[in-house]
Amino acid sequence: MPLEVKPRFVVLYGSQKGQAQSIAEGIAEEAEEHGLVAELCCLNQDDKYNLEKECAPVVFVVSTTGDGEPPDNALQFVKRIKKRTLSPDHYKHLLYALLALGDTNYANFCNCGKTIERRLRELGARQFYPTGYADDGVGLELVIDPWLKGLWNSIKDALTKMASDRNVQLKEDSAKEIPESSLPDVQLNLLSIADKQICEPDSKYSPSLAISDVRPPPASTVYTSAPNTQACSEGIPQVSLAASLTSSVPPLSESSLNVPALPPAYLDVTLQEADAAEQAAERLSKEARYEVPISKAVQLSKGDSVKTALLLELDISAFPSMTYHPGDSFDVFCPNVAEEVDHLLHRLGLQDQKNHRVQISLKDNTKKKGAQVPPHIPENVSLLFLLTWCLEIRSVPKKAFLRALVEHTSDSAQRRRLQELCSKQGAADYNLYVRDASLGVSELLAAFPSCSPPLSLLIELLPKLQPRPYSAACSLLRHPEKLRFVFNVVEFPACSGRPAGRRGLCTGWLFDLVSPGLVFPEKAELALPKIHVSLRPNCSFRPPSDPSLPFVMIGPGTGVAPFIGFLQQREEERKENPEAKFGETWLFFGCRYRDKDYLFREELENFVSSGTLNHLKVCFSREDRKDEEEPPSAAQPRYVQHNLLLCCRQVTDILLRRNGYIYVCGDAKNMAKDVNETLMEMIKTELQVDQLEAMKTLAGLREQKRYLQDIWA
C-alpha cells in the first residue's frame, strides 16, 4: 500500500516575547490531528521558506512591539515586502491567513499584522480566512480561540480548491493564470481608519474577528464562578456565592469542560554538581553589552507623594561607543527577587541543588514542532542563575501552562480547578483570578499545594526574563559621559492569590540598590553598584531634524523624562548657534500636587526663563478640588488634555499649518487615549470636519511621523 502523503501548509511567526511563537507552535502541533502537516518557521529564517514559490496555504501569526513596530525577528521580513521595487503581482500565487496580536492600550493596535496584511494584498496575495485581531488588553483568547477553531476547515477548503485547480491546469495544459473565481470564496476585509471591518450583509464570512464579534457557540459557553454581587436597599453589596482562585461554584463547577491539548514535553533537564571555578564564571548573556556604575541617585518626589519618583545617573565614560540621542531608550537587565527565587526553589524541592549546573537537551522523538533548547538560557549555568536571570518567574501563566500543571497535581479537587481555569468555560475565572491579578508561578503553586511540576516544565513554558526599557532623560551635550533616567517605584497591591503587596520587578530592584544613598544623603560618596544596560535607539521619537520647525511635547508625571533631554539639547544648540532660527516649543505637564510630584520644576522654569521653552502649561489633578465631581474650569485644568483644549488654536496651527510635530510620552491606558481623543476633537473644531475626517487627519500625522508616542501600559 502506498504511503499516504498528508497535505501541507506553512506557519510563519514573528514574536517579541514568545506569545506569537507559542500560538504558532500550537497550530503546527495540532495540524497532525486534522490530517495535515505544518512547516513551522520564524519569519527571520528566510533560508527555510520561500514565499515567492510557495504553493501551499500560509498562516502568519505576528505580534506588535514598541510604538507599532514589528518584533525583532520579523523586522527584516517587513522591510523586504515593503520594497517598492516589487511588482503588484509578486505574490499573486499566495494564499494566506493572518492572526495579529496587539493591545488596545496602545494607539497602533496590531500594527505589524496590519502592515503585513496590507502589503501582501498590494502584492497580489489572496486571503483564505478572515484575519483575527487579538487584544491583550482584555484577553487574547477571546479572539484566538474562535479564530483557531475555524482555521482548520478553511485550510482544508483552500488545499482542496488549490489541488483541484492544479489538476484542471494540468489537464488543460494551459499557461493561463489562475482565475480569481478558483480561489476560496471569502470576503476580503477592508480596514477603515477606525479599525472596523466592512462587509456586505450576504458575505459568506464574518468580518475580521475583533472582540465585539466573538460569540462563543453553545458548546463553549463561558461560565463564571466569580462572586455574584447585588446591592441591598442600603446600597451595600451582598455576595451571594463564594468563589476564589482555588474554588468554583455552579454552573462552572458542574459543567463539562473543553480543555486545551497538553503541550508536548520536549526538554530533558538534569542537574550536575559544579566546582567553585564554574560557579564564579557565570555571566549574563551577550545582550547585556554594558556594565555601568550608578553615579547618582536622587528622589524627585517629596513628602507623602503617592508615588516615589527617582532619577538615576549612569556613568558611561568607560564606553565611548555608547552614544544616544534625546528620545532614545535603553534596556535595564534586572534579576528576579532573591526571596521569590528562594521560595520557588523550596517549592520545587531543589534548594539543596541551587548551585548545580543545569544540563538541557532535547527529548528524543518529541512531538513538539521546531523544538529547540531555549536560546535565552546560557550553557552550563547554575540553577540559581537560571531562575534569577533567565526566566520570567513573575509572568502570568498561560492556559497551556495551567494545562501542563494538571498532570502534576495529585489532589482531585485541585486538578479539577486547574482544568476549569484553563478551559473555555472557565475563561472568566482565568481572567479574574489569574490574569487580572497578575499572579506568577510561585503564587499559583502556593495556591495548589499538591502540584509538583518538574523543573523541565518551567524551562519549557516560562518566557525569557525581559529587560525593562527606560527613556533617556538627558542630552549628551549637557551631560557628557552620563545617561540619566527617571521612574516611579511601581506598587502592586495584595489580592486574591497574593496575600501581600509587592513592588515592580525592576523599579523595586533599582530602589533597593540605591536606597542607602537616598536614606542617608550625607553618605554622598557611598559607592553605588553597577547595572547591565543596552541601548535601544529610537530613530523616530526625536526632535525635528529641522530645528526651525515648532513642536509640542505632552508628558505628565515621569512621561516628561525624554523632553528634559529634548530641551537640554535645544538649549545647548542655541548656545552654540545663537544666530540660528529655532522653532517654537510647548510642553504640557501634569501631576497630582505642585509641592509633591512636580518633577524637574526648577529645570523647566529655567528653560522658560532662557527662552528654550516658549510655553509651559502645567496642571495639578488633586489640588484645590473641594468637590471631586465638579468639572475642571478653564482657570483650573485638571489633566493635560484640558490644557490642550485651552490651547486648541495654537496647537492645531502648529500641526496643520506650520508642519510641526507633537510628542506624547507616558501612560497608554488612560492619558495617551485621552490625548488622542482630545486631538481629534480639536481637529474637528478647527477644520469644521466630522469624526472620520479628523481621524484621517490624525492618521496622516502619524504616517508622516509628526505625531509620535513613547507610551507604556
From TrEMBL:
Residues 287-544 form the FAD-binding FR-type domain. InterPro entries: CysJ-like_FAD-binding, FAD-bd_FR_type, Flavdoxin-like, Flavodoxin/NO_synth, Flavoprot_Pyr_Nucl_cyt_Rdtase, Flavoprotein-like_sf, FNR_nucleotide-bd, NADPH_Cyt_P450_Rdtase_alpha. GO terms for cellular component: cytosol. Signal peptide: none annotated. PROSITE patterns: FAD_FR (PS51384), FLAVODOXIN_LIKE (PS50902). Keywords: Amino-acid biosynthesis, FAD, Flavoprotein, FMN, Methionine biosynthesis, NADP, Oxidoreductase, S-adenosyl-L-methionine. GO terms for biological process: homocysteine metabolic process; methionine biosynthetic process. It comes from the Eukaryota. Its EC number is 1.16.1.8. Residues 9-152 form the Flavodoxin-like domain. One of its GO terms (molecular function) is [methionine synthase] reductase (NADPH) activity. Its cofactor is FAD; FMN. PANTHER family: METHIONINE SYNTHASE REDUCTASE, NITRIC OXIDE SYNTHASE-RELATED. This is Methionine synthase reductase. It comes from Poecilia formosa.
